[in-house]
Design goal:
hydrolase; 157 residues; EC 3.1.2.2; single chain; globular; Thiol Ester Dehydrase, Chain A; binds ligand 3IX; transit peptide; alpha+beta
């Protein structure tokens, strides 16, 4: 049986996210998994020709930022659920959104092979989490990310 990804349990609006919504046909449709339950997460994604920066075989920095954003916020949400003792395999009862996103581009990222992002939560506050990540291509570290994810409470609640 295929392994369940974090994004497979998002439905409704969450499943339409451009970076990670599994029901957005125009989006990146990333899939995130535990590398180590409750601690580290992993996402592997294959770039397509249209994701190029101006040079052929160099991945767009904006796409890299989106990959890091979505994988990191998904990680924050799943770590929050894990810490609260909830199963993460059904629609999440808490939502995190991006408060800040910082990307450091270390090397051009090639597009001929999949990129892999590994993330972990390095600081936990009552309402916010700091998620640090590394993006690799062909086993080389090409970018680093730092995302502040904040628990989102709709105004109507
Ligand atoms: C905005 C509507 C979003 C609708 C939600 C829909 C979908 C959610 C999406 C995804 C969830 C599903 C899967 C995950 C994957 C996808 C990732 C994509 C996510 C996005 O693409 S989403 C769009 C871009 N995103 C925004 O559109 C945010 C606009 N913005 C705001 O909505 C507010 O700005 C908010 C909520 C961020 C904070 O507002 P707030 O009132 O809750 O914050 P508050 O003041 O209470 O702070 C609480 C603690 O966060 C710290 N804090 C706050 N802001 C900070 C910052 N910028 N940097 C560092 N720390 C910060 C404070 O310092 C305090 O920290 P401490 O607790 O330690 O004092």
């Amino acid at each position: 049986m295929e392994q369940l990804a974090f994004q497979d349990v998002f439905s409704g609006d969450l499943s339409q996210c451009w970076g990670c919504g599994c029901h957005n046909p125009h989006g990146l449709q990333i899939k995130s998994y535990w590398a180590e339950e409750g601690q580290e997460t992993i996402c592997t994604w294959q770039p397509q020709d249209q994701h190029t920066a101006a040079w052929l075989n160099v991945l767009s920095g904006g796409i890299i930022a989106s990959l890091i954003d979505c994988h990191s916020v998904s990680t924050a949400m799943m770590v929050a659920l894990h810490d609260a003792g909830y199963a993460w395999t059904s629609e999440p009862p808490v939502i995190y959104i991006t408060a800040s996103l910082q990307v450091t581009y270390l090397k051009p990222t090639p597009m001929t092979s999949p990129v892999t992002i590994r993330a972990r939560v390095t600081e936990k506050g009552k309402k916010k989490m700091l998620v640090q990540s590394s993006l690799f291509a062909q086993d080389e570290l090409c970018a680093r990310g730092e995302v502040v994810a904040v628990r989102y409470t709709p105004a109507t609640q």
